[in-house]
Amino acid sequence: MSEVLLSATNLVKRFGGLAAVNDVSIDLWRNRIHAVIGPNGAGKSTLTHLLSGDLPPTTGSVSIGGKDVTGWAPERISHQGLGRSYQKTNIFLPFTVWDNVRLAAQSREAQSPWNPLGWFSDTRRVATKSVATHARCERAIELSGLKDRRRAVASTISHGEQRQLEIAMTLATEPQVLLLDEPLAGMGVAEAERMVALLLLIKREHAMLLVEHDMDAVFALADRLTVMVNGQVIASGTPAEIRADAGVQAAYLGE
Ligand code: ADP
Ligand code: MG
Asked: What was the pLDDT predicted at 249?
């Protein structure tokens, strides 16, 4: 059953006199990819920062899983079920694929504000948690298509595989909602196709907001599209509706 996992209402972010995000509302549904497109400087990355708590909104609100998380710190929002990747990589290059994923999973546990296994003895708790973490990392690596690369040192894998690793690291924190900022950036055709297939697999279990410039990928992936220009939403709808929108053609797609 589909449901809204993240809901943002009338978000505004001002930097001095500039409204980088100007009255944007968006709902992210489980099993759906919502793409946000628009020219450079439109406010797409700023929007992702408002959703993940990396920036507080000037006004407006964000709720995740029905809970109002407006103004929460990023770690707390991550615990509420939001995982994100950044345009800049978080990979630790001297470490293996496996160790990067394991570190990402553990970084979340270390910050856990409560302990659901607290009634176990310490030893048993650590062992149980470690088995669960291991299984979670295995799954994240498999889902990201890196099963055969798990022992490879991150600096030696291809650019496309590094982007897959970032997805694996995000999945290892067990998010319900994924925010991906330009996951196809810098990819060749074959790498981009592999990433599109990967994102379609991930969508089966998550809600996803996808910021992406590769329009072939966007139209192959998105269930819904929001078009931003100068901080504002100029159109929102299905891929077919957006393709047919004359204003969008003029402002962006036709450029
Ligand atoms: P996009 O991701 O769509 O290219 P951004 O969200 O990065 O756009 O930027 C939107 C606008 O906000 C741009 O004009 C950018 O220069 C400005 N901006 C982004 N972050 C900051 C910041 N921290 N301080 C001031 N201005 C910013
Ligand atoms: Mg950006």
From this structure: 83
- Whose CA is closest to atom 14 on ligand 1? 41
CA–centroid distance, residue 43 to ligand 1 (Å): 6
- Report ipTM for this prediction: 0.99
Which protein residue's CA is at the shortest distance from atom 26 of ligand 1?
A: 15
CB of 15 within 6 A of ligand 1: the answer is yes
Q: What are the DSSP calls for the chain, one per residue? A: ---EEEEEEEEEEEETTEEEEEEEEEEEETT-EEEEE-STTSSHHHHHHHHHTSS--SEEEEEETTEE-TT--HHHHHHTTEEE--SS----TTSBHHHHHHHHHHHHHHT-SS-TTTTS-HHHHHHHHHHHHHHHHHHHHHHTT-GGGTTSBGGGS-HHHHHHHHHHHHHTT--SEEEEE-TTTT--HHHHHHHHHHHHHHHTT-EEEEE-S-HHHHHHH-SEEEEEETTEEEEEE-HHHHHH-HHHIIIIIT-
Q: Residue ranges of the chain with pLDDT lower than 50? A: 111-114, 118-120
- From the CB of 100, is ligand 1 less than 6 Å away? no
Residue 106 is predicted with a pLDDT of: 84
pTM: 0.90
pLDDT digits (tens, 9 = 90+) for 208-232: 999 999 999 999 999 999 999 999 9
Domains and CATH numbers, the chain: 1-81+175-255 (3.40.50.300), 91-174 (no CATH)
